[in-house]
Amino acid sequence: MIEDPKPHRGDRLVVAARRMLAAPVLVGLAVSALLPAQAVASQALAQKYTCVACHQPAVKVVGPSWKDIGAKYGEGKGTVAQLAASIKAGSTGKWGPMPMPPQAQVPDADLQAIAQWLLAGAK
């Protein structure tokens, strides 16, 4: 039996449809692998290091909300390195009388990730 070397129109349509459907899925996976991973990792880090005991996304608890931190230091008003250093060293008086205890136990890479996340709006 000899097969027809020329693909049938229906076969070409199926292949084209698969490619069209696969491209957005692959792009979506690539984007979700890059961007949300940072947000998820930073949210997880905020929980891991118990930042959530004093800070919440949109309301002041003991310390300022993540939204307020982003508004104060984001949009070029501060750098990731400055905010990470402030978290590590702790502070008094930046947000009122309640001191922020030093977070020296948090690895620098995690401090950088948390600071970047905060400056990006904690999203």
Number of strands: 0
Find the structural class using helix and strand composition. Answer: mainly alpha
H/E series: HHHH
Tally of individual helices: 4
Gross morphology: elongated
Query: What is the oligomeric state here?
Result: single chain
Distance between the termini: 61 Å
* Regions with little confidence, pLDDT below 50 for 5+ residues: 23-35
Mean pLDDT: 80
Strand content: under 5%
How large is the radius of gyration?
24 Å
Largest sheet report: none
Helical content (DSSP H or I, runs of 4+): 55-70%
What's this model, at a glance?
The chain is mostly helical. Helices cover 57% and strands 0% of the residues.
Which helices and strands appear, and what pairs or packs with what?
Layout: H1 9-48, H2 66-73, H3 80-89, H4 108-119
Helix pairs in contact: 1-4, 3-4
